[in-house]
Amino acid sequence: MVDFKVVLSDPATGKAYNIDASGAGAGSFIGKRIGDEIDGAALGFDGYKIRITGASDRNGTPARKTLQIAGRRKVLMAGGVGFHPRVDGERRRKMVRGAEITQDFVQINAIVATQGSKTLAEYFAPAEPEAPAAE
């Protein structure tokens, strides 16, 4: 069984929402790459299209879009995701994951590409308690 924590950002409101995806919802991410879009109905958001923007595994190793593999590699980097040089021209060999989503990932970062009929705030609004019956 695969479980993911999905951080879904809504650019219209500037808010981010945490979603626990398991079962079929998590299965819709397997095999996709960073930059791919999935149907929001898999996570319960009808009419939404969700674009994968990044991910990380249980060790916190980030996924890099330019690395078109499914595993981890040590890559010589001069900047970008996974390495921020402190000195101009600095390069280092750093561990990063490939862009393909596998069951080894824990967190997936995503953004709303197409809005649905309901807003995300309506989906995540706390349930109102039922009023007691008047006698």
Strand content: 35-45%
Mean pLDDT: 91
Helix fraction by DSSP (H/I, runs of at least 4): under 10%
Gyration radius over CA: 18 Å
Category from helices, strands and their pairing: mainly beta
Secondary-structure element series: EEHEEEEEH
User: Segments where pLDDT lies below 50 for 5+ residues?
Assistant: none
Strand order of the largest sheet: 2-1-7-4-3
Q: Tally the helices: what do you get?
A: 2
The global form is: elongated
Summarize the main sheet.
5 strands, mixed
Number of strands: 7
What does this structure look like?
The protein has 135 residues and is mainly β. The chain has a domain of 86 residues. The strands form two sheets. Strands 2-1-7-4-3 form a five-stranded mixed β-sheet. A two-stranded antiparallel sheet has the order 5-6. The longest helix is centred in the C-terminal third of the chain and has 5 residues. The mean pLDDT is 91.
Helices and strands, with pairings:
Layout: E1 3-10, E2 15-22, H1 24-27, E3 37-39, E4 49-57, E5 72-77, E6 92-97, E7 105-114, H2 120-124
What descriptors fit this protein?
two-stranded antiparallel sheet, 7 strands, 135 residues, 37% strand, mainly beta
At a glance:
With 135 residues, this protein is mainly β. Helices cover 7% and strands 37% of the residues. It has a domain at 3-65 and 102-124.
